[in-house]
UniProtKB/TrEMBL annotation:
It is an enzyme of class 5 (isomerase). The active site is at residue 51. GO terms for molecular function: RNA binding; tRNA pseudouridine(38-40) synthase activity. Keywords: Isomerase, tRNA processing. The lineage of its organism: Bacteria, Pseudomonadati, Bacteroidota, Sphingobacteriia, Sphingobacteriales. Gene3D superfamilies: Pseudouridine synthase I, catalytic domain, C-terminal subdomain (3.30.70.660), Pseudouridine synthase I, catalytic domain, N-terminal subdomain (3.30.70.580). Residues 148-244 form the Pseudouridine synthase I TruA alpha/beta domain. This is tRNA pseudouridine synthase A. The gene is truA. Belongs to the tRNA pseudouridine synthase TruA family. The keyword Ion transport does not apply. Its EC number is 5.4.99.12. It comes from Pedobacter hiemivivus.
Length: 269
């Protein structure tokens, strides 16, 4: 029997999702907990990969289990797992649906705060900046859905069969005081460090060291910037994963401080 499992995690202490020897990773921690609770080796497949210190307020993986359990697996798993990983739903599937290959859209949020804030430490990226040109940053963000090839904004494009990404939407929001920024982007897929590279470029535009025209030229010419400066990982969240047969709302309270700001304070640039 195949199951989809809906989870969220704070990635600050992890070297990303993917299981790797010798480092702490989310996949390995979950597999170990599942194998312990179900008393049989369990291997899981995630809906994608996240970098070290990157979070997921919505993430799915699938697993195959030969014998059904007769207890509350979600309750037991949440007791066994560390506090920075939470299981929200366990969903039996009718067939062999794939958590990674069947996803049709993924959405990310990137949060920035511009003053030192101990309550956002590790949940949002701290940049000591002021007088950013938000209008120019939004102009640059708005052109992203016009382009399909994102080779210019990838650290290792040659490892992919192609670098086409169908970006559905991209937008920048800011709170009333200009102290908190939120970049949102949705696409069918993303390349290695693509969002953090784009965010780094948007910050350069906001500071006036890169023009919107130069930013767009990278996309037009598939030319990688001479200096790639990805934004910090802590502000990045995988926030929504959509399937043709499964479209669950995220458990937004997972990042309650940020979501409260998102719901109450943000306004479109």
């Amino acid at each position: 029997m195949r199951y989809f499992v809906h989870i969220g995690y704070n990635g600050l202490k992890y070297n990303g999702w993917q299981k790797q020897p010798g480092v702490m990773n989310v996949q390995g921690v979950i597999e170990q907990a599942l194998s312990q609770v179900l008393k049989t080796p369990i291997f899981i497949n995630g809906c994608g990969r996240t970098d070290a210190r990157v979070h997921a307020s919505q993430f799915f993986f699938h697993m195959d289990v030969e014998q059904p359990w007769d207890f509350d697996l979600m309750f037991r798993m949440n007791k066994v797992l560390p506090g920075n990983i939470a299981i929200f739903d366990i969903i039996p599937m009718d067939g062999l649906q794939h958590a990674r290959f069947d996803a049709v859209q993924r959405s990310y949020d990137y949060f920035i705060h511009t003053y030192k804030n101990p309550f956002l430490n590790g949940l949002s990226s701290f940049y000591l900046l002021d007088k950013l040109d938000f209008d120019k940053m939004q102009q640059a963000a708005a052109i992203l859905p016009n382009y399909k090839d994102y080779r210019a904004f990838c650290t290792s494009p040659d490892k992919y069969e192609h670098t086409l990404c169908y970006v559905k939407s991209a937008s920048l929001s800011v709170d009333e005081n200009g102290d908190h920024l939120r970049f949102q982007i949705s696409s069918n897929r993303f390349l290695s460090k693509m969002i953090r590279i784009i965010m780094g470029q948007l910050l350069k535009i906001g500071k006036g060291v890169l023009s919107v025209e130069e930013f767009e030229s990278y996309l037009i010419n598939n030319k990688t910037p001479d200096l790639i400066t990805p934004a910090h990982p802590e502000g990045l969240y995988l926030s929504k994963v959509t399937y043709p047969y499964l479209n669950l709302p995220p458990r937004q309270q997972f990042s309650s401080v940020l979501q409260m700001q998102a719901d109450l304070c943000w306004k479109q640039v």
